[in-house]
Amino acid sequence: MSPTGVGRIGSVFAEAKSENRALLIGYLPAGFPTLGESVALVEAMCDGGVDLIEVGLPYSDPLMDGPVIQQAVDQALSNGATPQSVLTVVKAVSDHGVVPVVMSYWNPIEQFGIEAFAQELRQAGGAGVITPDLTIEEGQPWIAAAGSQELAPIFLVAPSSTDERISRIAQVTQGFVYAASTMGVTGARDRVSNMAPQLVARVRASTDLPIAVGLGVSNGAQAAEIAQYADGVIVGSAFVTAANTGGVAAVRELARELAGGVHRAR
Amino acid sequence: MSTTQADLETHLSGHYGPYGGRFVPEALISALDQLDAAFRAGIADPEFSSRLVDLERDYTGRPSPLTRARRFGEHCAGARIYFKREDLNHTGSHKINNVLGQALLAQRMGKTRIIAETGAGQHGVATATAAALLGLQCTVYMGAEDTRRQALNVARMKILGAEVFSVATGSMTLKDAINEAMRDWVASVDSTHYVLGTVTGPAPFPEMVRHFHSVIGRESREQIFAVEGRLPDAVAACVGGGSNAMGLFSGFIDDPDVQLRGYEAGGEGVDTGRHAARFAAGTPGVLHGARTYVMQDEWGQTVPSHSISAGLDYPGVGPEHAWLHDTGRAIYESVNDSEAMDAFALCSRSEGIIPAIETAHGLAGVIRLGKELGPDSVIILNLSGRGDKDVATAARWFGIELEHSEFGASIELSEGR
Lengths: 266, 417
Fold this sequence. Notes:
The complex is a heterodimer of chains A (266) and B (417). Chain A is 51% helix and 14% strand.
């Protein structure tokens, strides 16, 4: 029997923990710059040492994303990306032996049909979904649909979240908690936010789930810094920039550098 | 139907039936909670309310008159048409009502900077004005396409001391300006309040913006009783996001005999795909923090809207309008560019009032409505804004040579273009 999505995410974190290291999580939008190239890019991430892949579902109004990812999803959309492209990339990642989760703004999932989306994602080998604009108050139907397919509903916490909210978010989240390191949109920053360690500590106090930190991580040194206290390090915009400047080779190289940072951190 | 109790319940949870709610990044939740608390405390605080009422009277110039439009009414099958003159407010539109309320709340929350999105520029001008009045920093996000067609308002905002940020992503219109304002707010929320300009967005914005515009409906109700001794048969307004309409509707929503009529932008025609007719051609979805009617494709990607009027050029609509539409309490129709521009010219020529092109959509609707309801009917139209900002667009539409105006270019009222 194949393990569930929630179980597969749990296993990757458990394996990394047994090696006393954090997980490296990489993001790229499906269909960027084209569907074929995006499959090659995520395979390069896998080969370079990314442990878990976030496949982005391109959306016309990505209000939590900075300019780098905005341009990438615009490009993917003008090249015809659809939810089907996401499922294709998810399947490629899963077939490559790496666990894929989807990262999607809410409206495309609602329009696809939430039960249908959960079902097709599971069939494609997806393990969970990160929903950056779905609050837990509006998320009940999705939590139920994901649960029926044993997919992990992954919610975000932010530095501005109260302890009480963090606890409620952690109760309905499965797989891992996504801790947004800073108040702002996605994109590389010179230095990792000083809010991140405190946020991770606050989440730690209310759940045993693994905690992954994202927003603003772009190089091995930053990844190593976060890997000292978080269970996972999420990198997005930097992979998009690498794909833009050096294609598959640059993405594989960046994955190696980041994986190196994560592995030597502790 | 009576919606009083249902309204109360839905407002409390930020929902209007299945619409509304909060679909935003978690980082904004604490700011929305803070805003919600400040709003409720503010409107319960006599000092806050009296400060707002004083500003409305002494600064905005409220109450705005209710003007009988006799000559325009002749083109509406002789119906008794009244204009609620929000165009006479300081800054030239209804937008100032909401902005003063929110700017006072920003001060109350200790925030030193306000930001806003703007389409036609009226909300941006109102926000820049309130910032100047209260000594707040101000940044206004405006689509690059809109900065071009509303250049006069860009200049006004800059003169008032605001920074105007031209947004060149996506369709370069109001939708993209909102995305950019939200991105600013996520990163600046400690010092900054986002003065959202219409009854859209995450709770509590739709309820709060309606509240600050409800003065339009309250005054209209008193004024129509004073002149007609009865309720109107219908109240009408153009609907972009829908704030001027909600302001007027709110005064009559509990009077089941008063029809609520909204007019959205039909652009070049609903069948051309180049329009902003959310109710005619949109479906329920989530956009900019709320569930509502959205112009979208089968995959949930927002479809760019189109209208000659920058203020109506938006692919979503306020969630309470979505609910009023579904329950049948309000009726929404679309008015295309040429019909609106005919009404623009007719209002200018018959009443000596140059309306905003947004408002002209409501005027065109009222011409239809008068014919529907007949000569004895009483109809109030929210004359939501004045048309100074639209002079260049109108001159282009009517073929008026601005540089050779001494030749006295004439406008053919019946032919539009």
